[in-house]
């Protein structure tokens, strides 16, 4: 029986994966730091996550190897960290990698540091033995030990220098003057235009990431300016991604990213945050264009999440692995023989033709370049176009394809599934709550709002401490880890969207209360913006702020729009002042490269205006009230807040300006204000469209 190390007592699926390693792993904590100081050893900090392919590879090659483990145990005190549990630690030491490494940085991330946590070496994947110029663990570990033992002064000076540089960068204000405005929106658009791949959609070359917040910004920029190229870039990317192998055509949902420029060969892991952000992008595209393909894609992603990524309590799991049976993508690919075995010769041939499956496989192994023999299902055009090209009854072809898809999905369910990371994270759940709420409103689908409510209720009940403040992670009945700014920003976002889907004022009250908590514990009152960690969290070598919108938007970018919306809802100008100070805090960085901050640009788009405050005064569930709300739901008006003012106390304590906005003649009435100017109320739903069409168009 394998002897377990200290990680066996942890909750993280990633740490538990390493619990049987012969490496004497410690979780992050004082026990490890005290041991390192006592034994005068450097610390090897290894950071990854449970669905990380190269993390698995390094574990099997090195951390499971007795000789490598012996060398590590002699030279280091070794600490394992799950970056999804502790993004605060990951962000700090990823910055170290970016400072020290000439190549790219990613995961696994391996840092060597002094016992007082000051780094002096960084690397990503390290094989057991050296190959192709990449150092191997069996040579590298003794070399680092020798340097530590014989060149200590130089090592300490280097570590002090790196730490000082990080502290200086963290302390320097990133702002210069006023908050960014219209010019940042225009520059951001032009930068995306320069990088746009006209053939495949997306931006830049391989690898290609979905980055849905780029697309949401482009849709809003098109709404503002009428620039058809902005709409084209968003639509082209959404369409090509949906056709490509990055989309799971049998079971739905998106894989993490494409290793090629054409969206064919994915890195097969599936992340909850990608599903949430993509649902929002496809939903907004549907509202902007009315195209059913976008609605269909959003619904399919939601089907995947509710089927495979939802806990019995209602929270959403974090991720599914790329690997099964030790092979990346094995669960998802098909040979032509397998297609025929499941579907029969005729339908197997149809699916092979439509989805480009070949007898020898339709893609090559990324590392070797050799044909894999397997097929990734992908399309060259939308299914309805392909079905029409067959001649005859296109509808009948589509029905055959859907029956075949279901058979393939059912057959695939019998395979060995990839590992599921079943921890529940507050921040990623906030994004999924927002996505479900947006889709519920756009598609008139109350079950989506019900799923969002169940998740929100679970998080608010199970993932708060005794003081009422949020916690970051829940797994196997236990919540823990002090929340980060992302947890607050994304959950507030989700609750604001959930209010507009359900008009349950308690979600709005909770969002405002959480924003007050966030301001109290994370806000930099002097320079603006939010720190990633709370003012009473564990002390790290730096306290940093995130604003870059990478795979997931930053807390500051999400908070900008949250603050603006809450300010408009409550009429409390202090929220908008905090939002403006946030913009000022990061103005220099944003003005230099605004396309790196597209979620923040969506917030700026709201701030620049036009934006609307819409109050529907009426009985909840009343026929005339529902007709008013229905008129709103089909419109693409992203820069708005919507309140339901029911008879009685309702939301008047939250939004005092609604006090006098009553029903008219016993009928539901809509009160619409734009840029702080209010129109006369209307009682006919069709008139809402006219009021909301008074869009200010600004020249680029």
Helices, strands, pairings?
Elements: H1 13-17, E1 25-27, H2 30-39, E2 43-48, H3 53-63, H4 66-75, E3 77-82, H5 87-100, E4 109-113, E5 119-123, H6 137-150, H7 152-171, H8 182-195, H9 212-225, H10 228-243, E6 257-258, E7 266-267, E8 270-271, H11 272-289, H12 292-308, E9 317-320, E10 323-324, E11 327-328, H13 336-354, H14 383-389, H15 394-413, E12 420-425, H16 426-443, H17 446-462, E13 471-475, E14 478-482, H18 485-502, H19 505-522, H20 555-570, H21 573-585, H22 587-592, H23 598-608, E15 612-617, H24 623-633, E16 640-645, E17 669-674, E18 677-678, H25 685-692
Helix pairs in contact: 4-6, 8-9, 8-23, 9-10, 9-11, 9-23, 11-12, 11-16, 13-15, 14-15, 16-17, 16-18, 17-18, 18-19, 18-20, 20-21, 20-23, 24-25
Describe it for me?
With 700 residues, the chain is of the alpha+beta class. It has 4 domains: 6-171, Glutaredoxin, CATH 3.40.30.10; 182-330 and 420-608, Glycosyltransferase (Alpha/alpha barrel), CATH 1.50.10.10; 336-413, no CATH class; 612-692, Glutaredoxin, CATH 3.40.30. 49% of the residues lie in helices and 11% in strands. The chain is built from 25 helices and 18 strands. The chain has a 5-stranded mixed beta sheet, with helices on both faces. A 5-stranded antiparallel beta sheet has the order 8-9-12-13-14. Strands 16-15-17-18 form a 4-stranded mixed beta sheet, with helices on both faces. Strand 6 and strand 7 (266-267) form a beta hairpin. Helix 8 packs across helix 9, helix 9 packs parallel to helix 23 and helix 20 (555-570) packs antiparallel against helix 21 (573-585). It is globular. The model is unreliable at 695-700 (pLDDT under 50).
């Amino acid at each position: 029986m394998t002897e377990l190390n200290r990680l066996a007592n942890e909750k993280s699926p990633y740490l538990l994966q390493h619990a049987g390693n012969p490496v004497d792993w410690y979780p992050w904590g004082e026990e490890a730091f005290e041991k390192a100081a006592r034994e005068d050893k450097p610390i090897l900090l290894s950071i990854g996550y449970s669905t990380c392919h190269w993390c698995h590879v390094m574990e099997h090659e090195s951390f499971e190897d007795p000789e490598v483990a012996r060398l590590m145990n002699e030279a280091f005190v070794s600490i394992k960290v799950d970056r999804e549990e502790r993004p605060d630690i990951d962000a700090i030491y990823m910055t170290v990698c970016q400072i020290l490494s000439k190549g790219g940085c990613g995961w696994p991330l391996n840092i060597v540091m002094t016992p007082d946590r000051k780094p002096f070496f960084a690397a990503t994947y390290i094989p057991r033995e050296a190959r192709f110029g990449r150092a191997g663990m069996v040579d590298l570990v003794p070399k680092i030990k020798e340097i530590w033992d014989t060149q200590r002064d130089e090592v300490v000076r280097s570590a002090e220098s790196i730490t000082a540089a990080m502290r200086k960068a963290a302390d320097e204000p990133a702002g210069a003057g006023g908050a960014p405005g219209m010019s940042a929106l225009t520059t951001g658009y032009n930068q995306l235009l320069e990088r746009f791949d006209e053939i495949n959609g997306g931006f830049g070359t391989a690898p290609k990431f979905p980055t849905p917040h780029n697309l949401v910004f482009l849709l809003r920029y098109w709404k503002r300016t009428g620039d058809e190229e902005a709409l084209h870039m968003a639509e082209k990317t959404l369409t090509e991604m949906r056709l490509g192998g990055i989309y799971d055509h049998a079971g739905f949902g998106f894989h993490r990213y494409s290793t090629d420029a054409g969206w064919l060969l994915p890195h097969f892991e599936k992340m909850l945050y990608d599903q949430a952000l993509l649902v929002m992008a496809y939903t907004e595209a549907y509202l902007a264009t009315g195209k059913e393909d976008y609605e269909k894609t959003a619904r399919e992603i939601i089907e995947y999440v509710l089927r495979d990524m939802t806990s019995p309590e209602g929270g959403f799991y974090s991720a599914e692995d790329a690997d099964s049976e030790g092979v990346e993508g094995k669960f998802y690919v098909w040979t032509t023989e397998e297609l025929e075995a499941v579907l029969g010769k005729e339908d197997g041939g149809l699916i092979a033709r439509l989805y480009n499956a070949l007898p020898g496989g339709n893609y090559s192994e990324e590392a070797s370049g050799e044909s894999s023999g397997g097929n990734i299902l992908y399309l060259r055009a939308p299914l309805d176009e392909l079905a029409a090209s067959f001649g005859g009854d296109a509808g009948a072809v589509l029905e055959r394809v859907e029956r075949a898809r279901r058979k393939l999905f059912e057959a695939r369910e019998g395979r060995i599934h990839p590992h599921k990371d079943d921890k529940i994270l507050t921040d990623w759940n906030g994004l999924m709550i927002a996505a479900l709420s947006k889709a519920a409103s756009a598609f008139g689908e109350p079950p989506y709002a019900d799923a969002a409510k169940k998740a929100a209720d679970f998080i608010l009940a199970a993932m708060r401490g005794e003081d009422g403040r949020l916690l970051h992670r829940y797994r196997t009945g236990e919540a823990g880890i002090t929340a980060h700014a992302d947890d607050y920003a994304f959950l507030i976002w989700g609750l604001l969207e959930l209010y507009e889907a359900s008009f349950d004022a308690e979600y709005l009250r909770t969002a405002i209360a959480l924003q007050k908590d966030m301001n109290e514990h994370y806000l930099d009152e002097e320079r603006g913006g939010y720190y990633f960690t709370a003012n009473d969290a564990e002390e790290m070598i730096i306290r940093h702020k995130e604003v870059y919108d990478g795979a997931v938007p930053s807390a500051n970018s999400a908070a900008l729009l949250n603050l603006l919306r809450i300010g408009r809802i409550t009429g409390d100008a202090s929220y908008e002042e905090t939002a403006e100070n946030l913009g000022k805090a990061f103005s220099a960085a944003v003005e230099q490269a605004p396309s790196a901050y597209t979620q923040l640009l969506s917030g700026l788009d709201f701030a620049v205006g036009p934006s609307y405050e819409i109050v529907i005064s009426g009985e909840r569930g009343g026929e005339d009230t529902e007709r008013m709300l229905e008129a709103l739901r089909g419109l693409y008006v992203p820069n708005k807040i919507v309140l339901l003012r029911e008879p009685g106390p309702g939301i008047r304590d939250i939004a005092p300006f609604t006090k006098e906005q009553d029903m008219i003649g016993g009928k539901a009435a809509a009160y619409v204000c734009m840029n702080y100017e209010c129109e006369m109320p209307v009682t006919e739903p069709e008139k809402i469209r006219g009021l909301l069409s008074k869009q200010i168009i600004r020249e680029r």
